[in-house]
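This section describes the prediction task in plain terms. A model, or a person checking by hand, is given the sequence of a single protein chain and must write out its three-dimensional structure as a string of tokens. No templates, partner chains or ligands are provided. The sample shown here is typical of the held-out split.
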Amino acid sequence: MAPARLASVVRTRLYRHGVLEADGFPPEDISEHLRDPDAVVWLDLCGPSPVELAMLAEELGLHELAVEDALHERQRPKLDRYETHSFLTAYSVGLDGGSGKLATAELAVFLTHQALVTVRNDDRFDMAAVVARWDESPHLAKSGVGFLLHGLLDHVVDTHFEAVQDLDEHIEDLEDMVFAERPSSADMQRRALSLRKSLVTLRRVVLPMREVVNALMRTDHGIVDEFMRPYYQDVYDHVLRASEWTESLRDLVTTIRETQLNIQSNRLNLIMKKVTGWAAIIAVPTAVTGFYGQNVPYPGSEQPWGFWTSTTAIALLSGGLYALFKRRDWL
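The expected answer:
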């Protein structure tokens, strides 16, 4: 029987014999299309309700645990295999250029031999970019679901790679700040912690993708045919590069932070040497005037203007030293 109308359907596609035959067909026709063994269907749901997913699960024979994972956010990137289908979770990412904060968009995917169903809880995942990749490679469409999944994973991994590159540039800026003449310690600490947090989030998203893509390439899954295997190998290589780059950047941020602390310690030692030198210079006339000041008359002694002159001189000299130390960032 045909499923009830799904209000959350964003888009549908039908491929037959590797050729796109329909784009945006009614979801009620899915069952009819799937009766043809040469047909491959894509169904995209954005913000589906539990009732809608339950109807879809009944229609396609989806496992209840996979449906439950699709409804609940913050799943670990993974690939689960069930009797009639597989279930995949992945994340696309994007880095804010100003703050260096990483934003993630979760996507749940149901895979059968003839259908690929994508489920999103919101519209943060750029599905239009995935569709554009499919349209750019029509010669791969004969591989069916493997072709559709490749375009999706290729987009996801590319967002990981772009995020790593952007984070690398932010870290280079942080390195320049470390060796600046007058660095802002508070700003550096904020940026270092923000970048480290983004790298931790990216690591949680990128590292499990190695297991996902590697498992998909195994022949027992039956999703990737021999024609698509080199393309999945290329995606796997990008996953490895992104994960290794993420690990190295995380270590680099830690090293930068340690370098900053060492530089601050060295600057503090230098400042203490300079202040000690000033104190030694000032101590000599202070000791002399302190010893003789009450025994030898001086200009203005026992006069009000003498008192105010000496007080003003003390205030000006003290203020001048304070301004000098502050300008050189010693205080």
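For orientation: Helices lie at 30-34, 50-60, 64-71, 127-136, 145-178, 185-216, 229-292, 304-327.
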